[in-house]
Amino acid sequence: MVMVLSAIGLLIFPSKMLAVVGIVSNEQMDFLLRTAGAGVASLIPGAWAARTSIASPVSRAVLVGLAGYMFLSSVVDFHAYTQSIVNVASIPSIAFRILLGTVILWLMRKEMTRS
Would the pTM count as exceeding 0.85? Predict the structure, then answer.
């Protein structure tokens, strides 16, 4: 559900999404955020399909990719924060994505050791 809301926000309300972290938007930024939203939206079907079973290699690959997205996007956001590109409002999002990526990998490992 979080990914669906993020994708909707990025695709439909890019200026408002940027305003949360203190960035004033323009047409180019809206375009780039909508492109990112399309990427997030494209992850949703795979994540939905992988939610019930990680036994298949495809499901594991989807989940590892999703965790990788969570970690890498957090690194990008943290770098933007350290360069004063975004404000402190980006920190909860960074922390949440790191936590979510960690939980995905932990649950995968837990399930694989059970199998």
Answer: no
